[in-house]
Amino acid sequence: MGRLAETFFNAEVIATYLPALLSGFRVTLELAAAVVTLGILLGLALAMLRAFRFRLLNGLIVAFVDVFRTLPQLVVMVFAYFGLPYAGITISAFAAAVLGLALVLAAFAEEAFWAAITAIPRGQWEAARSTGLSFGQALASVVMPQAVRIAIPLLTNRTIAITKGTALASVISVPEILDKAQSAMSISANASPLIVGAGLYLAIFGPFVVVSRWLERRYGWII
Amino acid sequence: MQDFIANFANLESLARIYPLLFQGLEVTVLLSLVTVPLAVALGLFVAVLYSFHLRFLNPLLILWVDALRAFPVLVLLVLVFYGLPFVGINLPQFAAAVLALALNSGGYYGEIFRAGIEAVPRGQTEAARSTGLSAWQAAFSVVLPQAVRYVLAPLAGNTLELIKTTSIATAVALPELLRSARVAQETTYNPTPLTAAALIYFLLLWPLTRLVARLERKMVASR
How far apart are alpha carbons A11 and B168 in whole angstroms? Predict the structure, then answer.
């Protein structure tokens, strides 16, 4: 038992590597914030553009959504980091991670927002237009405020799932929690840093899971 | 443009490395074929247990599912592959990937089945039990067949996510499709293997993506 504690909960090892793990914690938070902001905004913008029903543009949006719903996040990330330099575009590992995850989240967000927009009754559009609002105004001031509320419960689980993908950034050696924990583990030959890292992930995502459970109960959505 | 093709769709490089990609594809398919049924079985087991409403057990099940939802699957994989050897359990890469993926995805399946089971009226269980079926018989022959129909869309969606997630086995150097593509890219100094791998993933999973989208639209429409 003592040996087990020494391997997985070694106070000395934890004290040594805690600063590194906390710096990883910060990078994970920055990654997550960037991914969620960019992904949701891009998804929202695409869904609103799609409402205008320009045929060519809609074809492109649907293609974008299909591609990024289908490709694994890690594949997109690896492609952005190892592939793009051959096209003369070199981006940092951090940027590649954000790009990969944000594109995937944007695809799912577009789907959710679009489903919500199409769920708004036609009468809402007609009433808004009949008061003299332009199509764009009706969309932005009447339809979207309702659609966003429908989309939120559809989106929460997916957003959490994709944001957890920030751990994948360790594969392209972004110095986030898992990356720091793994290198600390191999230097110290002790599993404690990994346990602390796991705890840090729970600290970040645990509250969101609790909130999403509450949202689910409140809106009765399952996804 | 010519440079672009020479880089990203280089047939010469493709001719050299395609056997490697097919080996990778084989491992990805095998990994999916082993993991999906395991995860579904685990999820079913958890959901049916939950439906018995055993007071001491249900909070534990919820805790397990929530912990998994808050926990990146890659972190779980790293824990299984690099952490377990510290307690003397050495799993090969394939087994570690199966274990981590099944545990993680089993939690999600469990949550989905649970929601489906709760949507089936209680009278169904009571009627089934009153004909003399045991609790397990009633759950599997009467309640589940109805429950599954309520949650077809999230079930298909989760399966798609699980197959996509097999790509994280790259992180423990299991030679699946993404890993093989990376190795090929490094030996040929050319990103074509990455393009090819992305294309293979897309062709493999796109039908499933379309199916999921269709089921989701149906579900949103039925509300």
Answer: 30
